[in-house]
Amino acid sequence: MKIVLAAVLALGLLGCGGTNKVVNGEIGGVEGGGESLTSCTGFISPSANIFVKSAIDQTIIGNATVIINSIGESATLTEEAEYVEGDDMLENSEDYAYFTILEMNESSWTLNYTVSAPGYDTVTSEDYLFVLNTSCGASNDFTEEVFLCPTGTTCE
Q1: Residue 60: DSSP 8-state
Q2: Distance between CA 97 and CA 60 in Å, rounded?
Q3: 3-class DSSP state of 122
């Protein structure tokens, strides 16, 4: 009786799952169909990279303060971006930019920033509409290059 029960269970398992083999280069595919058992891992968290440079000679300014404002329907957040001097091993930060994760929990919002540095005039941006891209593997990076004029100059 045990042998018959084991044979029935074995046939049932073979009939339900198919084989787990490499199909079209992916392990776990269904034979003949190329369907993969892997799924989307989501999208990249929204972030901002602001490059701050001198308007006179385009040198990078590493001692600026970058404030990013996110204004949504249900919340307003203010975040200070941190200067990334070299490779910090994060996928969505850029070297020599001011970086922050945008912590808004909405699908779209208004974003603006203010940049200041000792010896330079302050710059405040216009408002931008940030729309979160939720498709599989999507990047959600806001990147800007800001040029600051030394205080007392008329550069533009």
Answers
A1: B
A2: 9
A3: coil
- Residue 111: name the closest of 52, 42, 50, 61 by CA: 50
Question: Which residues are within 8 A (CB) of 42 and not within 5 positions of it... i.e. 6 or more apart?
Answer: 136, 137
Q: Residue 114: CB partners within 8 Å, gap ≥ 6? A: 66, 67, 69, 122, 123, 124, 125
Identity at 129, one-letter amino acid code = L
Residue with tokens 């970086």: 99
* Residue corresponding to tokens 């300014």: 61
**Strand 141-148, strand 47-54: pairing:** parallel
Contact 155, 61 (CB under 8 A): no
Rounded CA separation 43/46 (Å): 9
Burial of 36 (0-12, 13-18, 19+ CB in 10 A): middle
Q: What one-letter code names the amino acid at 154?
A: T
How confident is the model over 12-31, as pLDDT tens digits? 333 333 333 333 334 333 34
At 2-11, the pLDDT tens digits run 443 333 333 3
Place of tokens 């929204």: 46
How much is the pTM?
0.71
